[in-house]
Amino acid sequence: MYLPEDESGASVPVWAAFGDLMACLLGVFVLFFVWTVSFEVSMADDLAAERAQRVAATDRLETLESALAGPLRAGLITFVNGRIGIRGSVLFDLNSAELRAPGRALLIEMASPLGAYLGSREESLMVSGFTDDLQMRGALRTYHDNWELSAQRALTVVRALGDAGVPLDTLFAAGFGENHPVAPNDNPENRAKNRRVEMAPVPRPRPLSLKEP
């Protein structure tokens, strides 16, 4: 069977046109196959790199947890998913942001492993202060409200860690007042749980590059 004549007047066989079409389709298939293989290899490399990063991060957290084994065994701190919690009563007297002697000793003990952990990766340590829901009253009130008290407590901890050797450029303080309780504020025991300081590694902020308009 022949197709209509081409420009030269000769008839073009159907099988020749079909062959050209099949060659084009084969070329498209080969290109698609090569792209698919390359994509899969790239995905496999990315997954392997991500898996290696997760393993390394887990190893560093386990090393930090091991270094803090003493305070953990003594019940002075908690360590959950890389987040360190310290009861407020360990660090401060009620309604105070002045460190107690046991609290200062604890922070000095924690400074070396915290500094080593932060030095091994591009992370900062966020030190957060929390209070219960009872508002300070009376003539002896030092702080305006719980928010101010919690911020000052976090700042006190940051300064103590800095004095103990943790680089200050890896530390920052935040106060949350009575927000984000870990227990209902319905009895003295639960309120004591909510009066706490937490430390958590977070990505280190990078300076903004401000360009002239």
Tell me what you see in this structure:
With 213 residues, the chain is α+β, with helices and mostly antiparallel strands. Helices cover 50% and strands 17% of the residues. It has six helices and seven strands. It has helices at residues 14-67, 69-73, 88-91, 101-119, 146-163, 188-194; strands at 2-5, 11-13, 77-80, 83-87, 123-130, 171-175, 196-203. The longest helix is centred in the N-terminal third of the chain and has 54 residues, at 14-67. The chain is elongated, with a radius of gyration of 32 Å.
Structure summary:
It contains six helices and seven strands.
In what order do the strands lie side by side in the largest sheet? 3-4-7-5-6
The CATH topology annotation of the largest domain reads as 60s Ribosomal Protein L30, Chain: A
Portion in helices: 40-55%
Mean pLDDT: 83
**Overall morphology:** elongated
Broad structural category: alpha+beta
Number of domains: 2
CATH class of the largest domain: Alpha Beta
Low-confidence stretches: none
N-to-C SSE series?
Answer: EEHHEEHHEHEHE
The CATH architecture of the largest domain comes to: 2-Layer Sandwich
Strand content: 15-25%
**What is the CATH homology-level superfamily of the largest domain?**
OmpA-like domain
Annotation, overall tally of beta strands? 7
